[in-house]
Amino acid sequence: MALDHSVLLLIAIITGSYTSSKVTQVSVKVGSSITIPCVYREEYRNHVKYLCRGFQWSSCTDVVKTNRPDQSGKFSIFDDKSQRVFNMTIGDVTKHDTDYWCIVEKSGTDDGAYFHLSVTDGTPALYVDDQEVQGFLGGDITIRCYHSTSSGEVGWCKLGGTCVKDGWGTIDGRRVSVNSSVPRVFTATLYNVTIQSSGWYLCFKGDLQMPVYVNVTDRPITTTCLSPTTTIESGKISSSSWYLVTLLIPLGLLVFAVIVAVIVWFMLKKHSSSNPQTSAMAQRPSESSQDVTYSSVVIKKPQKAKEVELSNDTVTYSTLKEYKTSS
C-alpha cells in the first residue's frame, strides 16, 4: 500500500503553525495506556480504519482494524462516525511501542498519518490527570496540563480545528483561556460550553501533545422530596430512600394495630369489673328448665284506715297544770 504524500506535507504544516491540529508526538510512561484519535474526511465515514505498527509505511504491520479486533487485547479501535474520528488505544506500553500509523482504507492509495510515542520510565514530559474530562451544559471546564520542559510554547487545540496559545481566544465560537503563570503546569479553560463543545482536544508544549476528550452533558436536576435526606434525581428516587419508605409503612401499621388492640382490651376489662353480678351470673351454671316454677303475683293496694267519727257529746276538754316539786 502506498502512502498519500500530501498527508505528510499536511502534518508538517500543522506541526509548525498550530492553525489546525493532529496528533504527532505523545509522551507516555512504560506500562501505561494511551488513546490516540485520528480525524478523517466525511467521504471516509464507512471505510475500514486500522492501526499500523512501524516507522516505515511500506514495512509497518497492521495490529487492529475496525473489522478485525485484536485478539491479544493490547490494541483496540473505535470508529466514532458522529465526530468523524477513530480512536486507537494502546495498552501496557513498552519501549518498543514508538512508531505507528493511523490509516483509512480506500481504493488505490490508502490515506494515513504517522504519530510517535516518546516512551519513558519516569514521569512523561507532558501529561494530564485524565484523558477524559466531564462537563455540564452552560458551565466552564478547566484542564490542567503538566510538563517538565522549559522550552516551547503552550496552547490548547480542538482536534482538526483551531488552537489558542497562551492567553485568550475562541474555539467553535466559545471563549478559551490558556494560563501558564504557574511553573510546570498550564491550564486551559473552556467557558459556557455547549453540546458542540464535546470532542477531542490537544494540550501542547513545544513539539509534544496530549489528547484529551471533553464530554459535555446536561446538568442533572436534583429535587428535595419526602425528607431533607431524600432526593429525586433525573426523575428517579434513590434505592436507599425507597427501601426506607417501604419499611416504615408496614411498621407504622403494625404499631397502630397493637395500640388499638391494647385499648380494646382495657375497655373490656373495665366493663367486666364494673358489673360483678353479671360476672357472677355468667359464672353460675344454668339450671334445667324442668326445675323452674312460674307463679303469678298480684299486688293489692292497702285499705285506708277507717276514720273514727267521734260525737261531739263525748269530747271532754281538760286543762293541765304543772306542779313543781320540792327537791
TrEMBL record:
Region annotation Disordered: where it falls in the sequence: 275-294
Main localisation: membrane
Signal peptide bounds: 1-19
Keyword Ribonucleoprotein: no
InterPro entries linked to this entry: CD300_family_receptors, Ig-like_dom_sf, Ig-like_fold, Ig_sub
Subcellular localization(s) per the UniProt record: Membrane
Residue ranges crossing the lipid bilayer per the database entry: 242-268
Keywords assigned: Membrane, Signal, Transmembrane, Transmembrane helix
Source taxon at top rank: Eukaryota
Domain Immunoglobulin: 23-120, 130-217
Gene3D superfamilies: Immunoglobulins
Gene Ontology CC entries for this record: plasma membrane
Molecular functions (GO terms): transmembrane signaling receptor activity
The name this protein goes by in its record: Uncharacterized LOC103386930
